[in-house]
Design goal:
By secondary structure, the protein is of the alpha+beta class. The protein has helices spanning about 5-15, 20-30, 40-45, 55-65, 110-120, 135-140; strands at about 35, 70-75, 80-85, 90-95, 100-105, 130-135. The radius of gyration is 17 Å and the shape is flat.
Amino acid sequence: MDWVDHARRDLAAAGFRSGGAREAVLRLLAEQPCCLSAQQIFDALRARSESVGLASVYRALDALATLQLVRRVDVDGTACYEPAHPSGHHHHHARCDACGTLAAFEDDALEDAIEAIGARLGYRLDAHEVVLRGVCPGCTTRGSR
């Protein structure tokens, strides 16, 4: 089952009607390679000629977050959202301080290290978030910073 179907099922079980802004936000998030802010989601939906208001985007994200269907990632003080896959599969982020690009990455060794640190501290980890900051290859070759 893909994330959209999973989210639709959980939303219906929680009493939410299908369609409207939530459906538009679901479809958009499922297509994204990385997280987006509410404003970016709103702008992308408007670019598609979807008639969804910014308040509706926030309400949709709130419902999805309440049901743990999206992960909230804090990027420089801005809440960004991406699908929370039922399998627990996720990625982390690298942010360029020069151009602002946000890139997703996965690393099994990092996941193992995080689990080991949690165990050493005696924590049962429910979630974690990693955002690396630096200068991306494109900005490095252009001589930024």
